[in-house]
Amino acid sequence: MQFTAAQIAMMINGQLEGDATVSVGNFGKIEEATTGDLAFLANPKYEDYLYTTKASIVIVNNTLELKQPVSATLLRVPDAYAAFAALLSKYQDIVAQQLNGVQQPSYIASSAKLGEHIYIGAFAYIGEQVTIGNHVKIYPGAFIGNNVSIADHCTIYPGVKIYHDCIIGSHVTIHAGSVIGGDGFGFAPMPDGTFKKIPQIGNVILEDYVEIGANATIDRATMGSTIVKQGAKLDNLIQVGHNAEIGSNTVVAAQAGVSGSTKIGSNVMIGGQAGIVGHITIADGSRINAQSGVSKSIKQPNTTVTGSPAYDFTATLRSQALSRNLPSFEKRITELEKLIQQLLAEKVAS
Amino acid sequence: MQFTAAQIAMMINGQLEGDATVSVGNFGKIEEATTGDLAFLANPKYEDYLYTTKASIVIVNNTLELKQPVSATLLRVPDAYAAFAALLSKYQDIVAQQLNGVQQPSYIASSAKLGEHIYIGAFAYIGEQVTIGNHVKIYPGAFIGNNVSIADHCTIYPGVKIYHDCIIGSHVTIHAGSVIGGDGFGFAPMPDGTFKKIPQIGNVILEDYVEIGANATIDRATMGSTIVKQGAKLDNLIQVGHNAEIGSNTVVAAQAGVSGSTKIGSNVMIGGQAGIVGHITIADGSRINAQSGVSKSIKQPNTTVTGSPAYDFTATLRSQALSRNLPSFEKRITELEKLIQQLLAEKVAS
Amino acid sequence: MQFTAAQIAMMINGQLEGDATVSVGNFGKIEEATTGDLAFLANPKYEDYLYTTKASIVIVNNTLELKQPVSATLLRVPDAYAAFAALLSKYQDIVAQQLNGVQQPSYIASSAKLGEHIYIGAFAYIGEQVTIGNHVKIYPGAFIGNNVSIADHCTIYPGVKIYHDCIIGSHVTIHAGSVIGGDGFGFAPMPDGTFKKIPQIGNVILEDYVEIGANATIDRATMGSTIVKQGAKLDNLIQVGHNAEIGSNTVVAAQAGVSGSTKIGSNVMIGGQAGIVGHITIADGSRINAQSGVSKSIKQPNTTVTGSPAYDFTATLRSQALSRNLPSFEKRITELEKLIQQLLAEKVAS
Fold first, then answer.
1. How far, in Å, CA of A29 to CA of A41, rounded?
2. Residues of chain C with pLDDT under 50
3. What is the DSSP string of B281-340?
């Protein structure tokens, strides 16, 4: 798609300086952009690039005073970054709206109920009794198990698998390859050392505005539901165990894991590769640093922990620093022992 | 599916109290169940819910003495939890048996041999010379490479990929998105700093009753086989390197990794996010705690280790506790140094 | 495929001893091989197996002197291992060449441009404006998004998903289930505690000779490109964040993660389950041990670090060893305190 400077000026309510007919089809960073690109300048430290950029159009702040002539067409707005971001969102909406209809071959059970303005890609599988809302996009090769419901405005990327009976709220995004509702890891030990599977008959509920990264796994509950609450954002390759709860607006970075039955509060931040044991509670607003291993409940809201096992952040930093001083500690202790022995020897001698 | 209280009483050999004609179609927790649900009461601490539950049928222990009237139909058995679990298994078997036949479109090579009573979902791919046993379920979008064999009663969930030549025992379950038999990570360093791939021509063998979670990866051997032995249970997102062996009835929690050529014994428990280096041996019955990093063989059976690098559990706990005391250690050493200096100064002065 | 000893002797330029007409169809380890297998003997410590092996053909070093009669046909070459490895590569090339043509059903957009001698498996999806080079193999169920380009001699295994606009160099291999170009994890915090998605409009570039393991995730850049440079090898389940760069010939072991905007130099080795925070730089030739957590840039080339947080390898090993001595440290400090108190008490008394 191509847009002229005049068209974009209207979209973002910007003041146009330069050629109104020049057109762009791509976005670029001001330092890397080429002809036909739209860029922006928000941070004054990049201003030099404005005079050398090959971008055709640059969005700038109203307050900018030019020090040299500029070849690009300028669009002046109160906040260049915000205007650029809004434009990106609008652009992505336009692209997304172009995706619609049902590609063939796909498999849609006759009992499935489909909303309006949806896209179902080739090789997607829609099981029995599935309900799909309006404006939902299901990319190629996704698997939607029996009796799943997906509310309006969701995007299910290629190869996502949602097992039977799971419930997906509105405006949910699930990236490629993630598995929602696989069996929880529940096995009862038998007297002969083998394990007997405990049936996992619950489901997973993803509430509205949840986003899940690629190749993540969220297990179904043994009974009841594993729940990811409204607005939570989970990154790639994360694991959420059966019957766990992730609070609203909580953010979980890549490769972190939450074990079964643990309840994470709201507005918690969990760093990459962190792990949280099962059956504990993490208070609202907690911050769990990357690679931490949390083995006990965090009861005080807004606590920051770090380390494995995880403890209070500041204390742990001090201990970690001292732990690198251990060689000097040992030297000081040995020296003290020598001095004491001297004193004792002299006392005996005297 | 709907079952009446009378039908369920027969299935679990229970003694019926109340309306025998009431019917249920779902399972629920006693505290959350609604009309049409079947629940159970095993733990006396939940007894209060029995008098308020909306469940239509509740399975209870023979020994229960009612303190108030109950609206649900009761089914009395010697062990309510065991009866409930048995019912769940039976129910899942019934559901599973409904899955059968070959959905279209699917791709089945003409040289593949298919057993009886199987299910092959839409978009599943069955390669040349593949052998599939009886009662096997292959969900939509699974990929079964050339010359793979899958024995009876296996369940291969959506989007599982099994590379060529792998051997899957009977009663094996593989959850969605897992990759069995990808190339081992083997590259020979060249003098110019590049790496040359070492061909990986072995396979993976999953023995009977193995269960693999979602999005796990088990690499094929360079030569010979990577083996997961009978009854081992591996959770989501785990990694098993080339030529590794996982012993029978060993349990590996989510996001753990076992490097190439390492042999894990039987009945070992490996915690979440633990990592085990290559070319070592872990004795039977060992317990490797979550997030541990095991860098040396464990030769003594039933050893518990923790930490990264991993050491004996009790000693590590003590060191970790003391490590949080390091600030007080430093204070005590500094105090001792001051006192010694005083004593020495006085001695010189005297 | 079957090859006679005479045919293989020609392929590897070997000197034949024994029956030239015996034929083999498989490779095997000398200690496990059976009739119809080809094995090799390079390491003298396995020589005993030569006299008992059931392999039909064994490749041996020219210098080998037989101590007993051998039933297998021998092929003598200057370097038995090198000849065997060359044969494996040749064999895999032959197998790979048998894969060609377009299986049905598959989905190929009419605007896609396909090279020659390609294989496209059933249920593969090739989007609009996709360009695919010569000798490319795309296995069943792979998803190639709009405007992706894939250069010559690439292998894309089953169920790989490549999002729109990504660029794949030549001789690239991507194993099953990996996701290339999913959205970077970028969300702006709003005053009400919710998060607003930052559009991710960049792409991923995989340069020539890159290999990516199974179920890995490499996120697209917010703007610009996430880049994996020539010859880098990434293992299973690894995570690369948006706008990160992985240098040429760098090796990343399984389950490691590189956060957004971090630049990894060339010839770096990153161990399994290691994590690297965002916005830092790792110098060429660095070695990051398994499970390390790197929180600061590494500026000195060829540095080895370990631990979480990661520090210089040798110093960390010393601290870790001393940390296990903490119980004895405490004992020594307590003993010193007792002695000092005695001395002070005596001084007062005297």
1. 9
2. none
3. EE-TT-EE-TT-EE-S-B-STT-EEETTTTEEHHHHHHHHHHHTTHHHHHHHHHHHHHHH
What is the arithmetic mean of pLDDT over B3-15?
93
Q: Is A171 a catalytic residue?
A: no
The CATH number assigned to the domain with range B3-97 reads 3.40.1390.10
Handedness of CA A50, A52, A53, A57 (dihedral sign): positive
Tokens of B350: 């005297």
Instruction: Tell me whether residues B176 and A183 touch, CB distance under 8 A.
Output: no
**Cβ separation C233–B187 shorter than 8 A:** yes
Lowest mean pLDDT among A86-95, A104-113, B2-11, B142-151: A86-95
Helix (H, G, I), strand (E, B) or coil at B347: helix
Closest chain C residue to B317 measured between Cα atoms? C324
- Give the sign of the dihedral formed by CA A266, CA A268, CA A272, CA A275: negative
pLDDT digits 0-9 by tens, B169-198: 999 999 999 999 999 999 989 999 999 998
Q: Which residues of B are tagged catalytic?
A: 242
The residues that bridge with A206 in the sheet, in sequence order, are A168, A228
Those residues of chain A that have pLDDT short of 50 are: none
C:47-106 residues touching chain A, CB 8 A cutoff: 105
Q: Cβ of C217 and A122 within 8 Å?
A: no
What percent of chain B has a predicted confidence (pLDDT) above 90? 77
| Per-residue confidence (pLDDT) for residue C350, from 0 to 100 | 66
Task: Give Cβ neighbours of residue A311 (< 8 Å, ≥ 6 apart).
Answer: A305, A319, B324
Query: At what angle are helices C5-12 and C80-98 packed, to 10 degrees?
Result: 110
Nearest CA in chain A to B230: A194
Is A217 buried (19+), middle (13-18) or exposed (0-12) by CB count in 10 A? buried
Per-residue buried b or exposed e for C265-275, using 16+ beta carbons within 10 Å of the residue's own CB: bbbbbbbbbbb
- pLDDT of B350 reads 66
Q: To 10 degrees, the CA torsion angle through B113, B116, B117, B120?
A: 10
Q: Which CATH superfamily is domain B160-309 in?
A: Hexapeptide repeat proteins (2.160.10.10)
Residues 6+ apart with CB under 8 A from B338: none
